[in-house]
Fold:
Amino acid sequence: MPEAIPPLISIVMPVYNEEALIMKTLRTVQGFINQRPERYEVIFVDDGSSDTTIDKLKKASAFYPDMRLIRFSRNFGHQLAITAGIRYATGDAVVVMDADLQDPPAVIGDMINAWQRGADVVYGQRSQRDGESWFKKTSASAFYRLLHAITNVDIPVDTGDFRLMDRKVVNVLDQMNEDEPFVRGMVSWIGFNQQAVTYERQPRTDGESKYPLRKMIRLAMDGVTSFSNLPLKLATWFGTTLFIAALVDVISAIWFGFTPTIITLCALLIIGGMILTSIGFLGQYLGRIFNQSRERPLYIVAETRGFPTLAQQPASQPVSLSHQQ
Structure:
């Protein structure tokens, strides 16, 4: 009998201004791959880096035949970089991980074992987050639990985008052409057999985090508005609560025969704040609808390297500015 061909595993890594760490990441991942029996392709998606990251990756691509490179024309965002990498991946299973080595490549081996036992999605669940501030740990923990509580999709807590997905899951994900994707939520929404692998997240050794507070808040809003309409319902609850409070205020004024100026002023301030909050929530949802309705390309690929043929460029990606080399 002919020997069975080992499965092909695609590792997708979005990168943005990681010149201080990228070569260490590449060597670490290659060291892991060299010890494994599976076949691999490593897809770096450069999200418009302004430092020497792309130059280092281009030079390295000449020495690593299993390395692939996608370069965006500008910075489109972490989630769209993941989307592009998944669309170009050809593996039987696709692993998504960041390029900062906080998610150890060795965990991929545990994910593959779970996949081979029948799991369709294997997500990394953080048992510990070393090297992060108290504020980031606390806010991340609160966000995961809030999102889990208010959505009708079972999005696991304490998980990021570090996960392995079977080809059938990837094929479904490729059909979801969302302008502002929240990938971990989309994968949970797809369903199938999903299992966790717990691990300790490592501290960043070089470079700086590319997820400051502003981007964390934006990602949180994308997650909430993608998978929950609870903020829209809050407007109704606010209105009902304030109507009851105003009615009690009027009855109290008539009954006791005085004009509660301070109470009225506070009520007006509360009403104004809640109205503006409700309008803000509504604007978030309308903004998502508007962006999706324009039907612009999700991202623009300026260059690709290492892919065997142009035929592998996904049909769902309508814009590519250069041929691969």
